[in-house]
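Researcher: Next sequence.
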Amino acid sequence: MLNPILLKLEEIADFIIHIQEEEFPIQNVPNLAETAAQFRMDPLSMSIIALIAASDPTLGDLNDVFFTTHLKKFTEKRRTPVTSALQKLEQFNLVYLHPNDRYQFKRKLQRIIQSGNWELLKDLVPHGVVPFLKNFIETTNSEEVEIYPRFQMMRSLDAPDNLFLEENEHLAMVKYYNSHLINFDHDEIAQQLFFMIIARKVLYFDTTDYYQALNGIRREDVKNFLNHYIINELWDPLQKGYFQFEGSDLVNEHITIEMTDLGVEHLLPELDPLMAEKLLDSTTVTVPHLKPEKIKDVKLIFDKEAQQLLHPVKRLMELDIREKINQKLGGYKTGVSVILYGAPGTGKTEFCLQLAKEFDMPIFQVNVAEIQNKWVGESEKNIYRMFRQYNLLKKQTKKECILLFNEADALLGKRVSVNSSVDNMENSLKNIFLEKMENFEGILFATSNLTGNLDPAFERRFLYKVFLKKPSKETAAKIWCTLFKGLPLDEAKILSQEFDFSPAEISNIKKKYEIDKILGSKLKRLTHIQSLCRNERILDQKSQSGKSLGF
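Model: Next structure:
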């Protein structure tokens, strides 16, 4: 099937190439006016697009000279209109001059033409809030700037036209920008930061990292803008309450700025009502989390000592109890921070899950290993992002939520003497975590297998420190009876005496027992369980063979 767009462009190009007259009315070129209207371009720019699309090696290089030679017949032999049209197409991010001195299509235009779908042309020149912001994101993250760096991303104000500001000057946010920010002292920073904050809000329901949004602009200028206009709230969008920021500049990576509900109302009145409602009343939850109703109900059995330690923690999950405590403390709101530490498999994580289920609290679970990043500064950014995401989850769900740092040993260990950049990064990560805990409002749980390496500074930050050891023989027998329905207590006691297992290990035995039953095992229950228990733990090869493995 022939490509209708390419076919039309080739017809236009063929006519232009074979015109004999030295001067010719451009409006008389067949199909040019209607095609230009569909592309939302002027006829001269459309002629350039057609010539590139139908390029033939026999025509020579597709450079300035080529286009001037073939198009000056439409411009009374003047070069300026042709070069201006080329510059405009470059600024619109539609074409670029390849190092081989030939103009080529940018990927976006190339994909649309190759698709043959006329409907896709409406996205070529973005009109409206969402298309405008999507183009902004695409422009600031262009992958082609190395090939043609003349208008790198948005770093150069010589080429703001690739944002299509003029084509969207009817939008409230563009009107505001033109009247309040375009002649600002730091107009490059103001432009990029302003539209990035709005784009992050509308497209991703997220806040904006200040330094990341301005990456590529001279660092000294970015810091000066922060210290003068952001921290002091002298920037007009902050003064009007359209944006709000949080953080300080103690570490250069954690200033975040967010668009407020007032900003949505005043700067985005053209937004689709449904999308505006989502932004103003975040019923749509965009933060990944564990829903309490999805958590399997598990009966936990602890020793009496552990029960006594966990009882006040559980009571603190009750809203009225927390309110009474806040009143007692003179209205000073404080977060609840708990560390559960001890041997693996003792129910630390499961206790948090069951609390979330019982009190209908969504869980934002953090994998500490994913926070750590080999690149300098990235781990610190990840910590701040975790806390921002948690606050956003609370806002979106309109519920108290649990922030769970599972297996947080790497975060909670003692800080070390700095002998390398890695040591410095790890200490910095711990310091940031301590800082965030100091001012935390919410419910934070951390689980750890640490028994003696906890940094003393964390001891003060955690309101409750609960040590969960392996259950006593008596408690273990109860766990055996609970998991294996109908198991006599005397048999359960035999198992608890013979095998020093954690609750997680007993649960694992239960799973394997059920699998074996499905596979047709005929062993008596106690004998079967004992057999599984003996194979539960991986044997130490050295103790079995007398030889250690070498590498």
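Model: Residues 143-160, 540-551 have pLDDT under 50 and may be disordered. The CA atoms of residues 99 and 147 lie 8 Å apart.
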